[in-house]
Amino acid sequence: MGFFKLLAGSSIVLVFAAVVCLFFGLIFMGFESVPLVPLERQLKQEDIGRIKKFIKQNDPRGLHDGQVKKVTFTQEELNLLLDYAFISLGLRVGTRVGLDPEFTMVEGSIALPEKFIGDYLNFTAKIAFDGRGITLSRMGVGKLPVPVFLVNPAMGLGYRLLESSGWFKTVKDAMDSIRTIEPGNKEMTVEFQWDRGVAKRFQNQARDLFVSPSDKERIKFYSGEITRLSHSMDGSSVSLAAYLKPLFLKARERSERDEPAKSENRALIFSLTLYAMGWSDKILTNNPSDSSGFSSGRPALAKALGQCLTLGGRGDLAKHFLVSAAISAGSNSGLSSIVGVFKEMEDSRGGTGFSFADLAADRAGIEFAKLATEKEDTALNLQRFMAQILDELEFMPPVDHLPEGIMELEFKRRFHDLDSREYALVEAEIAQRISGCKLYKNRP
Which residue segment(s) compose the domain that 252 sits in? Predict the structure, then answer.
């Protein structure tokens, strides 16, 4: 009898081990060395233009609560919006969606951590829409086809496990606001009912997802310091350097007490950008801040004196520098470059005109953010440097004699396009001026 018990027990262990090996073997079949969809997608300035135009035309914030709206987007627009979202969030994910009246094909790739056997997890899915209903008819992970009859129960189990979370409830409410989905030939029309309450919850929870409690506290701290500085300085216009020097002195002191330098610098840049743009720190913290030492009950920056921060005596250059630095610190410098160029191209169509001076401020802001947030050692070095600066030219190049105020037709006559030799020469001049600044001269 003991022999049979031992045999039975051994058989159970072997079967269990075989199942585990099979499970992990199937998973590893989904790992591949080449992405199905390129992850390093390059968005051109005209792509950003299309995205901004689409968002502006379909911005739901002007709708009345409960109002119904239809939005139609092309296959190309949908893929551009997805690329823009992944780049903005700094995610190494790539997707490609194909729209057809009968079904929608989704292909995607996710970059895996270095220790995994493969480099990418590739997946495919075939989806059909029926009004609001969604049917998954085919799915694959890597070279492995996944039986649909297994996916649907797994999705049901996931629904039951997640339905109690606040984030899942908000996503579900947002999905419930969609009335119909009508696929067409390389386009799709979505009809939804605007719900301000759900939109506000989604905004708050998205912020909580991407801004950690510790980062919120840092932003509140630097917002309070900015408020103090604004009450201690005279004049309606002040050099950006006058704020950066004492703020980075505080950042250095906090980092010497074991606060991460990269995180401190990022929060400092975000807070100063909010102040320069006239926005509230509540955008990122959602809580009234009393760290400024002034009366509580309002966000810290709401109590700051509204001074115009300048570079080279110009407020527009300081804003360009800070916004590009903030975008770069929060995501990646490539998107900051594109946004800066596109903004100048928009101005050339009838605004202030294309300005290479503004573009120089954009580029300098990006380089500044790289030093401030990419590596801990360079972040610490930047703190020490900025805490002792004497002049803004140490981190922002001079912009004299750079072409400005160029309208679109004049831009095309002089520079043809962004790939022309003439444009590249001015870009090279800007790069040389930035590299000549003391901060960037000895950059590793």
Answer: 211-441
